[in-house]
Amino acid sequence: MFLKVADLAAAAAVDEKTVLHWIRYDGLPAHKQNERYQINRIDLLEWATSKGITIPPDIFEVGAGADERSPVSGALRRGGIHYQLPGDTPETVLREVVSRLTLPPGMDPEFLLQTLLAREALGSTAFGNGIAIPHVRNPIVGQSGESAISLCFLEKPIDFVAVDGQPVTILFTLVTPNVTTHLQLLAKLAFLLHDHAFQELLHRPGSETEIMAAITRLEDTIIRR
């Protein structure tokens, strides 16, 4: 789960001095082991997303055997696209999101809601440009070993304390069977969201058919499955 400075520099196509600057001055979480920095992939993903820095998804593939290379398009088909989601605060909106998720048997929706809110309290999950990816640090375990992503378009803009100051109108939420798949899907989704044409389609917002076609096209062209 941990990366060395050299690993991150190679994957991000920057020099090691840049990575060290991120750690020392830009808040990239890291800890020292034997006088060398170690970077947790989950911390890296959350940090890069908050900073608008693009990190290739391949770096988050941490091992074999985990619903691997699960495409965002397949997970979104299972999670569904929802329009005109009501709510006027992050809590009321996230409550509506949770009500639309297919949760494992025995999972308390109220507990999940409070977990999502606690994560927001640690730092906004807003991606920028009106988009947020509320998630928990550990995966929301799915029912059948399959991943799901829900996409919700909000009825009105909500303040998610985004770094760019823009209110949020678009939410992606993940349900995953394990940590590895959770990390991979979150990374791929963040990578897709750096495509300006895709963001424009979301803000229109496009139809379910248009959105699925755009994601499939992007996966075929810019993400190695």
Give a short overview.
By secondary structure, the protein is α/β, with parallel strands linked by helices. Helix content is 44%, strand content 18%. It has helices spanning 5-12, 16-25, 41-51, 72-79, 90-100, 109-122, 179-192, 196-203, 208-222; strands at 2-4, 31-33, 36-40, 81-85, 126-128, 131-132, 148-158, 168-175.
State the strand order across the main sheet: 4-7-8-6-5
The structural class is: alpha/beta
Beta strand %: 15-25%
CATH homolog superfamily of the largest domain: Mannitol-specific EII, Chain A
**CATH architecture annotation name of the largest domain:** 3-Layer(aba) Sandwich
Task: Describe the structure in your own words.
The protein has 225 residues and is α/β, with parallel strands linked by helices. The protein folds into two domains: 2-55, Multidrug-efflux Transporter Regulator, Chain: A, Domain 2, CATH 1.10.1660.10; 72-222, Mannitol-specific EII, Chain A (3-Layer(aba) Sandwich), CATH 3.40.930. The protein has helices spanning 5-12, 16-25, 41-51, 72-79, 90-100, 109-122, 179-192, 196-203, 208-222, and strands at residues 2-4, 31-33, 36-40, 81-85, 126-128, 131-132, 148-158, 168-175. Strands 4-7-8-6-5 form a five-stranded mixed β-sheet. Strand 2 and strand 3 form a beta hairpin. Helix 1 (5-12) packs across helix 2, helix 3 packs parallel to helix 7 and helix 4 runs antiparallel to helix 9. The protein is globular, with a radius of gyration of 17 Å. The two termini are 20 Å apart. Residues 64-68 have low confidence and may be disordered.
